[in-house]
């Protein structure tokens, strides 16, 4: 089986010389949901931005379903960016059109999708996130939780193979948090979830990796990682007070 994502020996340093990634190896199989954990400054965002070629220039290799991320190859990068959908922490970074439907249609329209096929993509994506009835609304009139769901729909309309979620539960009320979790669990795609919300990682991702100082320092079932107090403390990860990972039944 071809890996959904394969990262081999990935390194990257910023122009000021700061090393952000130091030989990262990571493989995700199709359909996996994996949490990417780590303290601030660990390199998580830098890693994510390599998945669709926004950042590049260091050693190593990134492949999406066997297709290498090759920044100089415009055709290949266009296909990579279709395969890898990134949902940013702030939904307003992704919503800028007059209506919800137009926002969701924007990506596939840029790929040349038109007419009935484009309408079908919009309907499919909005149905997946429970927002079809809001298709004609102005995005910024929606609640924050609804805007986040629409942001997910803008990516789903591209029919990606990998969905990257950056802090998906941040600033959500409990009901919106639960609704988004149900949506994520229902999606037939590979998910890489960057989060500081450790209970959310435990709920949604059977596997987690910890990135710290640009290196993968742990890769194991989420419950095992969260139960290892020494490991957690060593990498500045902390569960909410009184939270017992063993009490969560998957």
TrEMBL record:
One of its GO terms (cellular component) is ATP-binding cassette (ABC) transporter complex. It is found in: Cell membrane. The keyword Nucleus does not apply. It comes from the Bacteria. Part of an ABC transporter complex. Responsible for energy coupling to the transport system. NCBIfam families: cbiO (TIGR01166). This is ABC transporter ATP-binding protein. It comes from Actinoplanes utahensis. The lineage of its organism: Bacteria, Bacillati, Actinomycetota, Actinomycetes, Micromonosporales.
